[in-house]
Amino acid sequence: MLDFYTIVIGLLILLLLLGNVFFPYLWLDLVFFFSALHTGYKCHRCLSRKPPITLLDLFLAKVQKHPEKPLVLFGDETYSYRDIDRRSSQLARVLRDHVGLEEGETVAVFLKNVPAYLWVWMGLEKIGSVMACINYNIRAKSLLHALSSCKATVLLTTPDFKAAIEDVLPALKKEGVRVFFLSEDSPTEGVEALLGQIRSSSAEPVPISFRAKVTPQSSSLYIYTSGTTGMPKAAIITQSKLLKVSHMFRMCGVTPKDIIYLPLPMYHSAALLLGTGGCLEVGCTIALRSKFSVTHFWDDCRRYGVTVIQYVGEMMRYLCNAPKTDRDRDHCVRLAIGNGMRVEVWKEFLYRFKPIQIHEFYGATEGNVGFINYIGKVGAMGKTNFLHKKLAKFELIQYNVDQDEPVRDEKGYCIPVGTGETGLLVAKITSHTPFSGYAGDRQKSEKKILRDVFTKGDCYFNSGDLLMQDHDGFLYFQDRVGDTFRWKGENVATTEVETTLATLELVQEANVYGVPVPGHEGKIGMASICLKDGLPFDGKEVYAHAKDCLPNYAIPRFIRIRDMLETTGTFKQLKSQLVKEGFDPVIIRDPLFFLDDLEKSYVPMTQQIFSAIAEKKLKL
Fold first, then answer.
1. Where is the AMP-binding enzyme C-terminal domain (predicted)?
2. Contact 125, 210 (CB under 8 A)
3. Residue 412 and residue 447 in contact, taking contact as beta carbons nearer than 8 Å
């Protein structure tokens, strides 16, 4: 009998050893899968209630549980859960009673990272209004486009943006958009200051009847994304999606005791949905900074006792490139959550700033699928397994980059790629994984849907991203397709930049694209342009126009003068060859120019400038 038990125990040990060899991540896969399953069940129960339990309700529950707990640390200021709750109730009453805002109307928010962002958001939730998060870097036509696409009736901002507001104020009044400053006084005629009224308003809880029409499918937010084509679009974030996404921080191991450092812009989904939403869901504290600063990053972490940081790849590269100090490992950060970190930066970060658990994730703002690298495998932006694929039906399919379209077989269906091959990520649109689309023109949403992908009549969300999956289920980002590239942590819509350049008198046609730069995340902007007959290139004029009309991250750093711009048979501009040729003056024989901020002009590109960029001696 003893020999029998010895054999059984030996076989079990052997199975465990074989399991670790052939399925090294099995247990972690199972733990994460059941965690995701539990989270999904919790969200379903909340949303099935009538009225549904939303993120606002979770926030209000935290207010009742620990009203005096700090929610926002900002400079020398501290705002408790009760402070944000009371101020949001005051704002809700002013917007409803004084401004006359009705449930379901859209309010655009044009703010920097300030505590007001949070109480404005919660205030709008309390009266069932939709908050449109406007990028505070945009100006003029881009700003007007953003406001019109979401049909905003009210714009909330501060006197910090006085010049930008006055530039478009006549057009806003013509469209019926009312502008208010969140300040004591207004420096602009025709813009009312609301802060005095907000402070004197009642801070008592707002009745649920003020948001009686809210359902899981109701829009909570509009967050702007360039997607892969056209001008920036207002992605619809429903109450259902908001609640589900806000649970990601908990799934990554964030607890109520954590303090999250948030220097990323709150008009993006990463900082607002995952960072701020995740904090409200878990019930922890945010250390908020108006803007990312390499100089102040670790000092802030030490000052506030930060335990969790949220990042984008560019931010981590800046930290690694900063001069080393004796205090590099003097901090309490235990967890980093973000996306876009390159392998070499990842390794350097862990080596220099001590081992920190890193959870890289993937997820498009408007997308219906997401991934988390819960293992911590360096370089991977997520992990999947056969159980995950049962819940989220996604696939990587063959894609023709030059034709800018999926490859289809003789039956007209898309073709999955093999393990280790690069393919376009598509995710099936179902009742459990819906695609809410964009505000406004339905055609914008339709362009993101692929039909008849594997069977007649099926619908898949087109992510516009090329990924690769290895044998262990780890996913790696390869490239972005279409008319968008990413620079300085921002998505740049090439159509918008092309339209801006085309308004110049000397420009006949423009083709804008992103080109890779050694040692930098993403791609930097470059434009190939055709000049009108008889008109010379004027570097100072183009520089001034670009600076006036575009945010800094979207301004093309290089300009290439072409006799003609190649197009496809359907007259779509070709970019792939231009991207491959980049900005090397040895390769390019066309006139080539570089944006020089000191000269306030585009100056002729030289081999010396190219070498300085390649050797990282010239800051871009």
1. 496-572
2. no
3. no
With beta carbons less than 8 A apart as the criterion, state whether 316 and 303 touch: no
- Residue 82: both structure tokens together: 């009760």
Q: How confident is the model over 435-473, as pLDDT tens digits?
A: 999 998 788 899 899 999 999 999 999 999 999 999 999
How distant, in Å, are the alpha carbons of 165, 185, 193, 589 from that of 189?
A: 11, 11, 10, 53
Does residue 251 sit in the same domain as residue 342?
yes
- Residue where one domain finishes, among candidates 359, 391, 408: 359
Instruction: Taking residues 396-425, report their average pLDDT.
Output: 92
First CA to last CA across the chain, in angstroms?
74
Name the nearest CA neighbour of 566 among 528, 594, 523, 534. 528
Shared-domain flag, residues 392 and 335: no
How many angstroms separate the CA atoms of 62 and 430, rounded?
Answer: 33
Q: Which residues pair with 468 in a beta bridge?
A: 422, 476
Q: What is the DSSP string of 231-298?
A: S-EEEEEEHHHHHHHHTHHHHTT--TT-EEEE-S-TTSHIIIIIIIHHHHHHT-EEEE-SS--HHHHH
Indicate if 242 and 297 belong to the same structural domain. yes
**H/E segment holding residue 358:** strand 357-363
Strands 474-480 vs 382-383: parallel, antiparallel or unpaired: antiparallel
Could you tell me the two tokens for 356? 């920190």
Q: What does the pLDDT look like over 239-268, one tens digit per residue? A: 999 999 999 999 999 999 999 999 999 999
| In contact, 129 and 106? CB cutoff 8 Å | yes
Beta bridge partners of 285: 259
Q: How far apart are CA 287 and CA 263, in angstroms?
A: 8
DSSP state of 328: T
Please indicate, yes or no, whether residues 46 and 134 belong to a single structural domain of this protein. yes
Does a structural domain hold residue 10?
no
Environment class of 493 (CB within 10 Å of its CB; exposed 0-12, middle 13-18, buried 19+): buried
Across the range 377-395, mean pLDDT stands at 88
How many other C-beta atoms lie within 10 A of the C-beta of residue 392?
17
Confidence band, pLDDT 50/70/90 cuts, at residue 411: very high
Domain count, the chain: 3
- pLDDT tens sequence across 185-235: 999 999 999 999 999 999 999 999 999 999 999 999 999 986 444 567 899
Both tokens of 265, joined, read: 């812009």
Please tell me the pTM assigned to this model.
0.86
Residue 514 in domain: yes
Report the relative pairing of strands 592-596 and 558-561 from DSSP bridges: antiparallel
Rounded to whole angstroms, the Cα distance separating 126 from 88 reads: 8
CA distance 574 to 410: 26
Structure tokens belonging to residue 352: 């220099």
DSSP assignments along 245-258, one per residue: HHTHHHHTT--TT-
Residues 455 and 405 in one domain: yes
Q: Is 3 helix (H, G, I), strand (E, B) or coil?
A: helix
Domain identity same for 439 and 510: no
Give residue 452's domain range.
Answer: 381-468
b/e 250-288 (16+ beta carbons within 10 angstroms → b): bbbebeeebbbbbbbbbbbbbbbbbbbbbbbbbbbbbbb
pLDDT reported for residue 142: 86
- Is the pLDDT at 566 greater than 80, yes or no? no
Which CATH number characterizes residue 547's domain? 3.30.300.30
Distance CA 402, CA 80 (A): 53
- CA angle 303-305-306, nearest 5°? 110
